[in-house]
Amino acid sequence: xxxxxxxxxxxxxxxxxxxxxxxxxxxxxxxxxxxxxxxxxxxxxxxxxxxxxxxxxxxxxxxxxxxxxxxxxxxxxxxxxxxxxxxxxxxxxxxxxxxxxxxxxxxxxxxxxxxxxxxxxxxxxxxxxxxxxxxxxxxxxxxxxxxxxxxxxxxxxxxxxxxxxxxxxxxxxxxxxxxxxxxxxxxxxxxxxxxxxxxxxxxxxxxxxxxxxxxxxxxxxxxxxxxxxxxxxxxxxxxxxxxxxxxxxxxxxxxxxxxxxxxxxxxxxxxxxxxxxxxxxxxxxxxxxxxxxxxxxxxxxxxxxxxxxxxxxxxxxxxxxxxxxxxxxxxxxxxxxxxxxxxxxxxxxxx
Length: 351
Fold this sequence. Notes:
This protein is of the alpha+beta class.
């Protein structure tokens, strides 16, 4: 059932519109990520849900109740901030217990819930340790435990992993997702990290300049971006000029069978969808390797073609890889290519 509803939510700071008419329905137990560049309005949206900012217009309802009318402390939300905001003079257990003390939970129950929650986040052996003696990942777990121990109706995460190094961030993504699935807590994550949003969320809300560009599952947003911004923001994307005539799209010296009206188009193709081939069939594009970069599990290529520079991602299978300066031919499936009119428009829009 629909649990949290944001209806035409708007926030203005003077003449600046930080959030512009955002509407979103979140199911109970769902994990939703608000994704976008700095200044797009995602953190402001989270702050309005938490009660730290008051909407200029629109409504927020939780299980059918007007949340805007409820004071922040009584909304029953768990929040993990980017800085973790732990009390340095308190142990891990004391930090986690703080919210329960504010709720007036009896000591015996409080201690048991703290013990269970620290075990849930893998910190059972660190209950008596102070934050200054803990790693960044351990501090992040304490902050998460403190938010979860109050059994929040919604868990709000504001860039919670951004202070961790790359390897630890990936490990914490897995742990965070496992914890969320175990508890079934409705969760909203704010992040600018595309890979983080796609790894964690059931759905992502891609935002740009205060507006929603697309709401979709991670794979749908990646494979069928609704706007040029989404196509460029979610991973690497090649954008090439195409001329469509009689259901064929000509790109450089190659052409692809398509279902589109005649005219000038822009074609978008993900680097991993492009393959090197030896033949000279119509659905190929000639080029020369300008640069190649070894990145462990894959090679990243930059190919000079008659249609412009093309980025290609090739998995490291152990087979010989084209060298810099080598002539190559590129191909991809028509269904892996998005087409839109050359003027600003939408790609793969859906109702």
